[in-house]
Amino acid sequence: MPRPVSAIRLAALALALGGTALTVDAVRAQPAAALPDWSGVWAMQGPTVFDGATVRPPDGRTGQPGVREFPPYNEEWEAIYRRNIELVREGNFPDPISVCGVPHGFPRIMNVPDVYEFAVTRDAVYILAENGPGIMRIYTDGRTHPPAEELWPTYTGASIGHWEGDTLVFSTISLKGASGNDVIVDRTGLVLSDSSRATTRMRKLDDSTIEAQMTIEDDKALTRPWQVTKRYSKQPRGTWAWDYSCGENNRNPVSASGKTLTLGPDGKPLDRVTE
Amino acid sequence: MRSTKIMTTLLAACAVLVAPPPLAAHHSAAMFDDTKVVELSGTVKALQWTNPHVWLQVMVEDQGRATEWSFEGGSPNSLSRQGWRSTTFKPGDVVTVRLRPMKDGTAAGQFIGAKFDADGHTVGRWE
Q: Do the domain assignments include residue B7?
C-alpha cells in the first residue's frame, strides 16, 4: 500500500524544486490513493465484552451475573464497578441505549454488535456503527482540539487524528463518561468518568481485519493507562448495512425505577411486576 | 384459527449445558431465564419486522384457551444478513418455537429457533 507523504517530505521536495512555498492546503491535499482502503462492511470479532483480555470467566458474556473485567480502577471506581456488577446480578442495571436516542458514546461505540463502516476521507474518518445508530467523527485535517472553553462533555467527545503510514492515530477528549448516568462501557457494569480520554491506533492488519488499539486514561477512575484492543472482520462483498431506529418499535423501555420492561403488542407491559 | 396445543418441554435440568449464547440485544436481557429452554407450539399471528428487535407473535392454545405469546428476536438488519426475510413467518403458519422464557412467567420469551409443522424446515438455532 502506498504510504502517505508526510508534510515535511513535501515541504523538503518543494524547497529542492526551487523553494516554492507550500501552503497548508497544499500539504493536506494528499492524493486519495495515499489513504488506506477500509471500504466494505465490517463486524466486531467476539462478544460485546469490552476488555476480552481480562474478562472472567474467560467465556463470560455481558449481562451474565458475576461476569467482570479488570480495568486498573482505583479503589473508588472499583467500588462503583462492584455495585454495578451487583445491579447486573439483580437484573437492575438498565442499558442506557434502551432509552431510544441515547448514543453508545466512546469507547463503547467500538464495542457494539451488528456491523460497521469506516469512511476514510482526506479530512476526516467516520466510524459508522449500524447499531444505535452511532457516528464517530475523527478530524484529520490538521486541526487541534478546541480550547477548553469551547468544549462540553459529549457522548463521543472530540477527536482529532493523523496518519502514521497506514495507521490512523487519534485522540479523543471531552467525554461525558458516567457523569450523566447515561453512558456505560459495557453491560457487565463497566463505566468511566468524565475525565476519561483515549489515544487510539487503528490500522488494517490484512485484507479482512481492522484493529483498534485504545489506550484509555482517566485521572478520576484509573490508576494507570488501560489498553484495550478490538478487531473487526470484513463481511462478504455486497453485504448491506441498514437503517436502524431504536424508536421504531421499542418494546423494552426502562421504567422510572430502572427496570427494563417488556411490552406486549398493544404497548402495555407484560411484566407481572413493573416497579 | 387452527387448534394448537401447548407442548411445554422444560429442559431446565440440562439447559445450562444446551442453551446457546443469548442474541445481541439493545437492552438488558435480565428478564429472560437463560438457564431454561422451552418449546411451545402455536399459530403465527404476526411477525413485527422492526428495529431494534423483530417480534414474533404466536397464538398458543392450552386447554381450550388461546394466549398470545411474544417472542423477541434480533434486529431485522442482522437477521436479514442471516437469511431471514420479512415473510419468513406468515400469519397462519403453524410452528414450534424454542425460547428462553421470561423469569416472571409471562407470555413472552427470547426467540432461539422455530420448526414449521408443514414441512419441517427450521429457522434460527435448532440443533
A: no
